[in-house]
Specification:
The structure is a single chain. Helix content is 40%, strand content 23%. By secondary structure, the chain is an alpha+beta fold. Strands 1-2-9-4-7 form a 5-stranded antiparallel β-sheet. Strands 3-8-5-6 form a 4-stranded antiparallel β-sheet. Strands 10-12-11 form a 3-stranded antiparallel β-sheet. 26% of the residues are buried.
């Protein structure tokens, strides 16, 4: 499904937008004046699954925040294939690089579940960057964090086997503080999307899951993965 970005929108009250922003790491502890200016004119957008928010090559819009759901960021090939580079979930932002550079989007953004997204006005964000060194520094760190993540992904693809990539991904889904045996997690997206995120084919990803399950380390029930022994899984493949 590939629908145009024509969501059901409704203006949020200024106070509601500020309350949401002040709980996000990118905006936390900024003063009320800063948050009020950034939130000005923000409009909540409810997206159906499969809604494309922007296409690779589109002119930049605002800074997008995910309130609910999940968005995938993909690179499109000339043959029409796609490579999933990032999955953006609740409380996370996307679109910062194109906004700051003033260049066309290098990626396509698509809602992979029913999602609620808050686009912040491009002009308001850029004006606050010029006005506020603290917010400017945070935006710079956000872009650097994404660059570091891309570098780490490239390193993993170059140096790690498919089994190691899948194992690391599964371990990364474990909630903070959970350990031991019989830890259950839910995959954040369909297996084909996760496979692309790990630079694997769907078939390769499924085969690795089967091999880890055959080793007695996990149980696969659709998108639920139950880890029988986290410490043993960390050592796989030995």
């Amino acid at each position: 499904m590939d629908t145009n970005f024509a969501p059901a929108t409704r203006p949020l009250s200024q106070s509601s937008t500020v309350r949401f922003l002040e709980n996000l790491p990118l905006f936390k502890d900024l003063n009320n004046g800063t948050l009020d200016r950034i939130a000005r004119g923000a409009t909540e957008s409810r997206l159906a699954q499969g809604t494309v928010i922007f296409h690779q090559g589109d002119l930049p819009g605002g800074l997008y925040l995910v309130i609910e759901g999940m968005v995938k960021l993909t690179l499109q090939t000339v043959r029409g294939d796609e490579k999933v580079l990032e999955l953006v979930g609740r409380g996370e932002a996307f679109g910062a690089v194109a906004l700051l550079l003033g260049e066309r989007y290098a990626l396509t953004a698509e809602a992979i579940t029913e999602s609620l997204v808050l686009p912040l006005n491009r002009g308001a964000v850029l004006e606050e960057i010029e006005r506020n060194p603290e917010f400017s520094s945070r935006m710079l760190r956000e872009v650097c964090r994404r660059l570091q993540a891309r570098t780490r992904d490239f390193e993993n693809c170059m140096l790690l086997s498919g089994a190691q990539r899948v194992t690391n991904f599964l371990l990364g889904q474990i909630p903070d503080g959970a350990n031991g045996k019989n830890v259950a997690v839910m995959l954040p997206a369909k297996k084909g999307i996760i496979a692309s995120r790990l630079n694997l084919t769907h078939e390769h990803f499924s085969r690795v899951l089967h091999e880890i399950q055959a080793a007695g380390l996990i149980e696969v029930r659709g998108r639920e993965i139950r880890m029988r022994d986290v410490s043993r899984l960390r050592a796989y493949p030995g």
